[in-house]
Amino acid sequence: MVDSSRNGLPPLPGKDPGQNPAVLPEDDNLNQPDQEKQSPEKAGEPAPAECRGNNEPEKGQQALQLPTTPALPPQNQAPKGPGVQIPARTPDVYPEGFMKTVSGAVGSVWLYFGLQILFAVFCSSLFTMIGLVILRSGMTGMTASSILTALVLLVTTVGSGVLTFLFARKKLGLSKAPGAWKNTRFKGSDVFLGICACWTMSMVLSFVIYLLNAMTGWIFEQPDVALKGNAFMDILNLVTTVIAAPILEEAIFRGCILESLKKYSTSFAIVFSSLLFALLHMNLAQGLPVFGMGLIFGWMYVRTGSLPMTITLHMINNAVSMLTTLLPGPLDLIMEILLIGLGIVGLVFMIRERKNIKTIVFEKYQTALCWRGACHSIGFWIFVVVAALVIILPLFGSLIYGVNLLY
Where are the domains of the chain? Predict the structure, then answer.
C-alpha cells in the first residue's frame, strides 16, 4: 500500500504505512530541544531519496554515467600517447592561377636569357662578314671590332627584349595594357627621391662586394660600360644602355612580372621580380646592386602606379653610370662626393617612408605561401643554379691560373 499523501513516494522512515497521516509518530528528538538532532546519515541509516542529490544512486541502482569532456592538449602541442592519430599536414592551397603566373614569369626570364644567347651568336656570325668589309676600308682591327661588338649588343638587347615582352604579355594575361603602363603623371620629386634611394642601395651593396673581394681574394668585377672616345661606338653604347635596356627591362620585369604577381602579394611581387632581374645579369658584382635597385624600382612602381616613372629612374641611373667615366680626375672626385650626398638623402627618404614600406612588406597574410609556391618551381631553381655556375666557374678558373703562376 502506498501512502497517497506522499504522491507515490516511499514512506518516511519510522512511519507505518497504515498510520493516520495526521498523527505524527513520537520522536525523541522533539523532546530534547537542547540536544543536536541526529540526521539519518549520522545514525548510520541511509538518507531518503529526497534528501540525496539527483546524481547519488540508491542501493541496488546503477550510478548515472554522464559524458565527460576529454582534456584538451596544451596549445601548439600535438596529442601524445598510444592510439592517438596525429592528423596529416594540410597541403598548401595556392591562390587561383598563382602557380601558372609564377611559371609564366620564370619562363619569360628563361626565354629572355636564351634569346640573348641566340641573337649574340647569330649577330656575331653575321657581322663578322661586315667586319671584313670594314677592315678593307682601312679601319683598324681594334676599332672595327669595338664597333661591331656595340652593334651586336644593341641588336641583341632590342631583339631579345621585344620578343620576350610580347611573350610575357600574352603568357601573363596582360593582353589589355594596365593603367600603370600609360600613367605619365608622376612628380619630379618622386624621380629625385627614387634616384637617391637607388644610389643608397647601390653604394651599400657595392661596399658588400668590396668586402667580399677583400675577404675571399676573388675578383668580382662589373662589366665595363665606359665610353671609349669613338663617337659612333659611344653612340651605340648610349642607345643600348640608356634607352633600349631601361625601356625593355622595365616593361618585362615591372610592367609584366611585377604587375601580374602583385594581386597575390605586393611584397612578393617586388622581391621576386627583382631577384629574377638580378639573376639575369649573371654577374655578382653587377647583380647584387641591381637587385637593390630593382627593389627601389618595384617600390616606386607600386607607390606611383607608373611604368614610365621606373623607366625614367632606370635611364637616369644608367646615364650617370656611363657619363661619370668621362670626367677627369677633379670632376670625378666631385661627382663621387655628390653621389654620396644623394645616397644620404635616399637613406633619409627611406627612413621617412618606413611605415609605408612596412605596410607593403606585411600587407598580406599569404606572402609566405607565395614564396613556398615559388620554391616549388623547378624552372626557377634551375635558373638559380645556372646563374651560380656562370658566376662561380670563372672564379675557379682565375684561381687555377693564379696557382699555376705560383709554380
Answer: 98-406
